[in-house]
Amino acid sequence: KLPIFRHATLVAGANGQDRVIRRVHIIDLPRATFEWAKGGELLLTSGAGLHDDLEAQQALVPKLASKGLAGLVLSVGRYFDSTPESIRRSGNRLNFPVIELPPDVSFIDVTETLYSRIIAEHYTLRERAEEIQRTLHALVLEGGTLQGLAEVLSEILQRSLVIENVAFEVLATAQVGSADGARMRSLSAGRTPPDLAQRLV
Questions:
Q1: pTM for this entry
Q2: pLDDT (0 to 100) of residue 179
Q3: Sign of the C-alpha dihedral, residues 33, 55, 76, 18?
Q4: Which stretch of DSSP H or E encloses residue 132?
């Protein structure tokens, strides 16, 4: 959806588009081992280390997927006119996104765009975390109750919440949306029924 990719084409791994990109890396070395991978990398390559090595082409996507990378961007037009079939097949089989990028789009522009987006999202998450911390801190300072805590957490998480003691007795609860059968049993009895509690142990 980013403008930098408006002329790019997803050629494989459409079912893996929910993979999270945490960082971007550029590599064109032949026989790279990707030992630097921490997971969540989007790999950009021109294929310089692959174009004359069929074995390396076949092994690439399985190796990247096993290392937890987010996807592969292949710049076509120099070493490859299109993505090799073995890379497409592996991408589809492993739900690993493979994107063809036109040669007129520079890797530096892709990298700058993605890192700007990643940093912006991290900043938003940090602001949200600080807001949650302030809300909970204020609740404690104002002598909030467990019921108040349950309601605040439920609002923050947008999830129903039950606080129980070690004996599975209900101490506080907050509801978002309709309650499921198991929750209704716990609320009506004032504690989690033994058969449900056993599953939680």
A1: 0.64
A2: 67
A3: negative
A4: helix 107-141
Q: What is the distance between the alpha carbons of residues 106 and 177, in angstroms, rounded to a whole number? A: 48
Strand order in the sheet with 98-101: 9-12, 98-101, 71-75, 41-45, 23-26
Residue type at position 87: I
Distance CA 72, CA 85 (A): 14
- Residues with Cβ < 8 Å from 115, sequence gap 6 or more? 23, 24
Q: In the chain, which ranges are E strands?
A: 9-12, 23-26, 41-45, 71-75, 98-101, 161-164, 170-174
pLDDT in tens, 75-84: 999 899 999 9
Question: Alpha-carbon distance 135 to 127, whole Å?
Answer: 12
Contacts of 176 (CB under 8 A, 6+ apart): 154, 158, 159, 160
C-alpha 96: how far from its chain's center?
A: 13
Query: pLDDT digit string (tens) for 142-170?
Result: 787 888 888 888 887 788 888 888 888 88
SS3 category, 17: coil
Long-range contact pairs involving 178-187 (C-beta distance under 8 Å, separation at least 24): 186/162, 187/162
